[in-house]
C-alpha cells in the first residue's frame, strides 16, 4: 500500500481519517465511499474507533463501489503517559485474530457500559430520559459518550448554552456517573504491536491535541520512533474541529511545526479530516 503524501503532492487530495456510523459518525461506509468519489478524493480511509467493520462491509460491496482508492483503517483509543491518545492503523490484515479479539472485547465492554450509563441517567432524573433503543442498534459496533451527549443535546439539555459548552457540560456529567463496567484502554505500545503484527502501518492521530495536554511531542516522537511508529497525521483541521482551542493562525503554525518534526524523525506524513458528518467531510475536503 502507498499512502499518498498530501504535503509533497499538492495536486492529490486524500483523507485518511473518516468516521462512519459504525462508531460515532453519521454516514454509512458506503455513503462515505460515494461522497469521497463525488469530492474527487484520490485516496481515503474509514478509521472508526475500535472497529474495522467498514473494511468487511466494503470488501463485500467492492464490485458495486465507485473507482476510488480505499485503504483499510482503524482508530485505536489507547494511553500514553496516563493520557488518552489515538493511534491510526492502515493496510492491516482485517482477519488477524489478535486484532479482531481486541476489537470484539472492547466493543462488548463499550456496549455494556453505555447501557449502564443510560440507566444511570434515568435514575438520576427519576424518569425515562433515554431508552436503550434510542442509542443501541444493529448498525453500530463501537458505542461512545458522543452517542449519549448528542442525544441529550437533541432533547434540549443545556439548550441555554452554546453547542460546545453544552457538549462539555454533559461530558463532565457523564464522567461523574459511576458504572460497573470500566473501559481499560491499552498502552500505545501494545496498540502499535496489534497493528504491526497484523501487517499494518501505525500513524499517530492529531498530535497537536496531545501537546495541548502537556505532552512533549519531541520526546513522544522519539520514543514512538524507537517502537516503530511509521507516521504522523500532519494535515488536520484543528480550527474547524476545535475552534475553542485553535485559531486559524495557530493551526497553520502547528501544521508547519509538525511537518518539520516529522521530517526530522523521518516519519510518513498523512492528512485527515476526522470527519464525523457529511458536512464535515465536504467542508474539510472542499478546498486546495
Helical proportion, percent range:
40-55%
Order of helices and strands: EHEHEEEHHHHEHEHHEHHEH
What class, by secondary structure content? alpha/beta
Tally of DSSP helical segments: 12
Task: Give the strand order of the largest sheet, numbering strands 1, 2, ... along the chain.
Answer: 6-4-5-7-8-9
Main β-sheet description:
6 strands, mixed
Strand percent estimate:
5-15%
Can you walk me through this structure?
There is one protein chain. With 288 residues, the protein is an alpha/beta fold. The protein has a domain at 102-176. The protein has helices spanning 29-38, 53-60, 97-125, 132-135, 145-154, 163-176, 188-197, 208-212, 217-226, 238-241, 248-264, 278-284, and strands at residues 14-18, 43-46, 69-70, 73-80, 83-90, 186-187, 201-204, 231-235, 268-271. It has a six-stranded mixed sheet. Helix 5 (145-154) packs across helix 6 (163-176). Mean pLDDT is 91; it is low at 6-11.
What is the topological layout?
Blueprint: E1 14-18, H1 29-38, E2 43-46, H2 53-60, E3 69-70, E4 73-80, E5 83-90, H3 97-125, H4 132-135, H5 145-154, H6 163-176, E6 186-187, H7 188-197, E7 201-204, H8 208-212, H9 217-226, E8 231-235, H10 238-241, H11 248-264, E9 268-271, H12 278-284
Parallel strand pairs: 1-2, 2-3, 4-6, 7-8, 8-9
Antiparallel strand pairs: 4-5, 5-7
Helix pairs in contact: 5-6
Amino acid at each position: 500500500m502507498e499512502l499518498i503524501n498530501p504535503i509533497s503532492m499538492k495536486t492529490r487530495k486524500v483523507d485518511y481519517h473518516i468516521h462512519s456510523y459504525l462508531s460515532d459518525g453519521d454516514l454509512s461506509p458506503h455513503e462515505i465511499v460515494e461522497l469521497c468519489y463525488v469530492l474527487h478524493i484520490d485516496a481515503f480511509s474509514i478509521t472508526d474507533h475500535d472497529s474495522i467493520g467498514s473494511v468487511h462491509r466494503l470488501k463485500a460491496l467492492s464490485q458495486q463501489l465507485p473507482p476510488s482508492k480505499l485503504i483499510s483503517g482503524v482508530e485505536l483509543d489507547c494511553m500514553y503517559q496516563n493520557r488518552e491518545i489515538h493511534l491510526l492503523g492502515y493496510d492491516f490484515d482485517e482477519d488477524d485474530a489478535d486484532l479482531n479479539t481486541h476489537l470484539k472485547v472492547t466493543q462488548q465492554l463499550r456496549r455494556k457500559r453505555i447501557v449502564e450509563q443510560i440507566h444511570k441517567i434515568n435514575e438520576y432524573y427519576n424518569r425515562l430520559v433515554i431508552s436503550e433503543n434510542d442509542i443501541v442498534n444493529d448498525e453500530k459496533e463501537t458505542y461512545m459518550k458522543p452517542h449519549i451527549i448528542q442525544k441529550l443535546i437533541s432533547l434540549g439539555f443545556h439548550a441555554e448554552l452554546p453547542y460546545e459548552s453544552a457538549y462539555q457540560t454533559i461530558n463532565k456529567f457523564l464522567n461523574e456517573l459511576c458504572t460497573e463496567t470500566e473501559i481499560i484502554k491499552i498502552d500505545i505500545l501494545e496498540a502499535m504491536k496489534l497493528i504491526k503484527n497484523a501487517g499494518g502501518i501505525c500513524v499517530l492521530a492529531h498530535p497537536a491535541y496531545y501537546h495541548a495536554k502537556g505532552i512533549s511531542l519531541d520526546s513522544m516522537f522519539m520514543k514512538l520512533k524507537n517502537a516503530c511508529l511509521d507516521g504522523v497525521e500532519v494535515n488536520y483541521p484543528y480550527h474547524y474541529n476545535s475552534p475553542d482551542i485553535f485559531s486559524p493562525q495557530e493551526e497553520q503554525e502547528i501544521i508547519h511545526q509538525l511537518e518539520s518534526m516529522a521530517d526530522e524523525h523521518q516519519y510518513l506524513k498523512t492528512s485527515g479530516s476526522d470527519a464525523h458528518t457529511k458536512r464535515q467531510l465536504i467542508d474539510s475536503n472542499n478546498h486546495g
